[in-house]
Design a protein that fits this description.
The chain has one domain. 76% of the residues lie in helices and 3% in strands. The protein has eight helices and two strands. The longest helix is centred in the C-terminal third of the chain and has 31 residues. 45% of the residues are buried.
């Protein structure tokens, strides 16, 4: 079921409001996707990953052993800020193949997996609430309503991926040595500002490319 240009633009505006002006309330969902990126790449590279914790200020942490193989450490660290954007691009692909319901069910499956790795109440509640919303839309809304929500959800992931870089900027500016950019500096000897730029450019590229594709789908 194809969308239309009006719906693509309208859902983009709705997602922008959710990701930016209301980001204080919605950022936790992006944080879950961020930590999920760390977790997934850690597991895929053979690292024994611990629990995920989510904090009220929108920050998060994934438990890793003190000693992690260099390549696994680099890949799992990079996957955090790239996670929401990567999932968003996957959603764009599915929307382009008329699989709006797949966007919902796959997103739900990812949040269910995260649920079992949450290590604090806030993270648990966030995963439950987001998963319930996705489940409810997938099982109770009409096909057209699911398509509209799918567009808004994908826009939200792409915009939220960019929005999350704001926190990294302030962490880097403030000299936080535990941020992902600082960890990448320790692992690669390239400055944290360089990695801040890499994460921002990657998230922006995903937003521009994915957004253009969604608008094109409506033509």
């Amino acid at each position: 079921m194809a969308g239309n240009v009006g719906m693509a633009w309208t859902t983009a505006v709705v997602a922008f409001v959710a990701a930016v002006p209301l980001g204080k309330f919605t950022l936790l969902a992006i944080t879950c996707a961020h930590e999920g990126g760390h977790t997934l790449l850690g597991l895929l590279t053979g690292v024994k990953v611990g629990r995920i914790t989510v904090s009220r200020d929108g920050g998060g942490e994934t438990g890793f052993p003190e000693k992690v193989p260099w390549l696994a450490d680099v890949l799992s660290t990079m996957a955090g800020y790239l996670g929401p954007s990567a999932v968003g691009l996957g959603g764009v692909y599915l929307l382009g193949h008329d699989k709006a319901e797949w966007v919902l069910w796959i997103s739900l499956a990812l949040f269910v997996l995260l649920l079992f790795r949450m290590g604090n109440l806030l993270g648990f509640v966030t995963a439950i609430a987001t998963g319930f919303l996705l489940w409810y839309v997938a099982t109770h809304w009409s096909d057209q309503a699911q398509l509209t929500f799918g567009y808004a959800w994908v826009w939200f992931l792409l915009m939220g991926g960019v929005r999350a870089i704001t926190g990294l900027f302030w962490a880097t500016h403030g000299g936080d040595r535990t941020s992902d950019a600082a960890v990448m500096q320790r692992l690669t000897l390239l400055p944290d500002v360089f990695w801040l730029g890499v994460f921002w450019l990657a998230a922006m590229a995903a937003l521009v490319f994915g957004g253009a594709k969604m608008l094109q789908l409506g033509v």
